[in-house]
Amino acid sequence: MNKLRLAREKAGLTQSEMGRKLGLTLAGYRQKEVGERKISVEEANKMVKILGTTLDEIFLNSNNQSD
User: Fold this and answer.
1) How many domains does the chain contain in total?
2) In a domain, 67, yes or no
3) What is the CATH number of the domain that holds 32?
4) Does residue 32 fall inside a structural domain?
5) What is the pLDDT of residues 9-21, one digit of tens each?
6) What pTM, to 2 d.p., does this model score?
7) How far apart are CA 52 and CA 47, in angstroms?
8) How many CA atoms lie within 13 A of 67 on its CB side?
9) Which of 37, 53, 54, 66 could form a disulfide with 31 if both were Cys (CB 3.0 to 4.6 A apart)?
């Protein structure tokens, strides 16, 4: 499951609600959440503000493992 979806669900928002907050249709938001359409920097900033999180938490790959 992707980090954007997890953050949205943790915030208690549906895809439709999130899309509406971003000025997107349900289909438009869903395509961005699943990676079918790119997310602009402006949209990414709006998303993290709505979700109360950071760009790093949602969009950076966190495969850093310390052995």
Assistant:
1) 1
2) no
3) 1.10.260.40
4) yes
5) 999 999 999 999 9
6) 0.84
7) 8
8) 1
9) 37
Q: How far apart, in whole angstroms, are the C-alpha atoms of residue 9 and residue 51?
A: 9
d(CA 58, CA 5): 9
> Is 61 contained in some domain?
no
Tokens at 24, concatenated: 């997107």
Cα dihedral across residues 12, 7, 16, 42: positive or negative: positive
Query: Does the structure show a pLDDT above 80 at 1?
Result: no
Q: Provide the residue type at 61 as one letter.
A: N
Distances (CA, A) of 7 to 12, 18, 20, 67: 9, 11, 16, 28
Can you tell me the distance from the alpha carbon of 20 to that of 1, in angstroms, rounded to the nearest whole number? 22
Which stretch of DSSP H or E encloses residue 56? helix 55-59
